[in-house]
């Protein structure tokens, strides 16, 4: 006899087959470079397009970020879709001092903080998070070149205010070190 104590747990994929189907259709349609990974709760890995937004790519974008976009891993948990998936940047990989500082939009586990101004209810499309991650890559380059002091609240996906930087080549990289290494995460609200 099978009881609740001996019954194997039900995975999110078994419990939410429509959501699994939706993600497995939407993500490859918009981001064909991402590959499904069936391990654990599942996820995706690959490189996002450098400019997947609904406006023309700025003239010098590749001077800022190179030819390709963000290499990342999207990790579902068994609590998905009620809990948003983790998006972990692999290249570029944020430096440990950037973790937990609101201005970098990186959590303490090195995953991206993409929902600060938005709420995840479980009904949203993961595509929206991936678009924000693509924008994070661009804002990260602007931060590294010290062109901005913090990333935008809504993200470059819909915020055009940073596009003018990308119309020009970046300034020479600062090799003097990190001006604010020890902020102790006290530079603003946490993600």
Task: Provide the descriptors you would attach to this structure in a database record.
5 helices, Ubiquitin Conjugating Enzyme, 4 strands, 191 residues, elongated, alpha+beta
Low-confidence stretches: 181-186
Number of helices: 5
Helix content: 10-25%
Sheet with the most strands? 4 strands, antiparallel
The N- to C-terminal Cα distance equals: 46 Å
Mean pLDDT: 89
Question: TL;DR of this structure?
Answer:
The protein is 24% helix and 10% strand. It is built from 5 helices and 4 strands. The chain is elongated, with a radius of gyration of 18 Å.
Secondary structure layout:
Layout: H1 12-15, H2 17-30, E1 35-37, E2 43-47, H3 61-65, E3 71-75, E4 86-91, H4 126-144, H5 163-166
Antiparallel strand pairs: 1-2, 2-3, 3-4
How is this structure best described in words?
- This protein is an alpha+beta fold and 191 residues long.
- It has one domain: Ubiquitin Conjugating Enzyme (Roll), CATH 3.10.110.
- It is built from 5 helices and 4 strands.
- It has a 4-stranded antiparallel β-sheet with strand order 1-2-3-4, covered by helices on one side.
- Strand 1 and strand 2 (43-47) form a beta hairpin.
- It is elongated and about 65 Å long.
- The N and C termini lie far apart (46 Å).
